[in-house]
Amino acid sequence: MHRRPPRLFPPFLLLIVALLLTGCGVDGDQAALCRKLIPAFDSGPVTILDTEALGGDEPALRLTYRTDNGGAETGTHWIACRFGGRFFDSRRHELVAVATDRMGRLRPMQFTMLRVWAGLPAARLGLPPESSGPEPQPRTDWAPLLFFLQQLINAATVACVYGLLALGYTLVYGILGQINLAMGELTMIGAMLTAMGAAALGMAGLGSLPLAVLGVFATVMAFTAVQGWTMDRLVFRRLRRTHNHTPLIAAVGLSIAYQEGMRLLHGARDWWPAQFLADRHELLSDGAFTVTALTSQAVILLMTGGLYALLWAIMQRTAYGRAHRACADDVGAAELVGVDVDRTVATTFAVGGALAAAAGAVIALYYGGVNFYTGYLVGFKALAAAVVGGIGSVPGAMLGGALLGLVETFWSAYFAIAYKDIVAFGLLTLFLIYRPDGLMGHRRGRGD
């Protein structure tokens, strides 16, 4: 009789090993959050030497690092961070304590100041365990639904940023059939100027006046609109008759020039303007989880909706809108019937620059932490949103921004946040393969 050979690794043993390994190792998101706190204690370049998971009832890790200051090694130090949950827990991003080799465990006031310095939301940092407060309520069956609603509110603000910048991309592409990769840098300029304007209002004691903030918005959008017009007048108008990749290469050069120019003028440090209208409102609660929204989120939604309605009215009811649609159909034919193509294209660049500045203003006053590199990744994500929605379609740009904002926010909430950019550009890849015209785009018939 034939006997089956014994299996060395029965399935139940593999399952046990997998379950044991689930709680081992270091959470990459927790390590990245702890790494972000090192500059509060040491300046200069940092080299991570070791990342070690610590024992205890709550997950903790210790980063051992070395700092160099002007080429002179300053020694080896460590920082330890303790979190409220493990890999698959809802509190895995909630920091509950911090300790260093020189200060020991931070006291409550020190921990609070560290939270303010880092600019991280309180929901991710929580409160130190030494603080007195009400005991948390047990989780109810409504908590997952409330958490879902909270992510919808968070996604709306992200969608506004991507949607506004995607509108700038789609307007230029709709009339020229070319992608202006320097549009993200106009967002960076808008964010930096908004941060400077907010700082000036704060020093003048006018930061709490909505009209003063609105004046900063309008000034920044006007300045960036001029930048967009100048960009077309000095660069793209001279390359309009070329039928190769020269305009795309010129856009890449402009992007780098804007980045390096801002870095040389203002340095590489982050700007953290005060949050605008940061009053928090509780919408729904089951005792364990509360759905909240900021006043600024409502203002951002209203501003984005107003700008989109204004753009729709301009495109449908004005001479510029008719000229833009004519050039989008056929530039040569539009020129033959008397449309001033150069002026229409320049106006399109100005409108796109103003919308990009609005996206930058949202980043500066809601998210903070703007620098010369702010527009790079945001620009590519907004381009992905424009392609997903159907580049060349104004409603498609807003739809693509909403879809990308939802995907990125929900992935960050339910899965590893470190992979959110991979997911965003993976979505772009899928659309380019299976639906290259996007959700609301139309196949172009003029060869571009």
TrEMBL record:
GO terms for biological process: D-alanine transmembrane transport; L-alanine transport; L-isoleucine import across plasma membrane. CDD domains: TM_PBP1_LivH_like. It is a multi-pass membrane protein. GO terms for cellular component: plasma membrane. Keywords: Amino-acid transport, Cell inner membrane, Cell membrane, Membrane, Transmembrane, Transmembrane helix, Transport. It is found in: Cell membrane. The keyword Magnesium does not apply. Pfam families: BPD_transp_2. The chain crosses the membrane at residues 152-176, 288-315, 349-370, 382-407, 413-434. The keyword Chloroplast does not apply. GO terms for molecular function: L-isoleucine transmembrane transporter activity; L-leucine transmembrane transporter activity; L-phenylalanine transmembrane transporter activity; L-valine transmembrane transporter activity. InterPro entries: ABC_transp_permease, BCAA_transport_permease. PANTHER family: BRANCHED-CHAIN AMINO ACID TRANSPORT SYSTEM PERMEASE PROTEIN LIVH, HIGH-AFFINITY BRANCHED-CHAIN AMINO ACID TRANSPORT SYSTEM PERMEASE PROTEIN LIVH. Belongs to the binding-protein-dependent transport system permease family. LivHM subfamily. This is Branched-chain amino acid ABC transporter,permease component (LivH-like). It comes from Azospirillum baldaniorum.
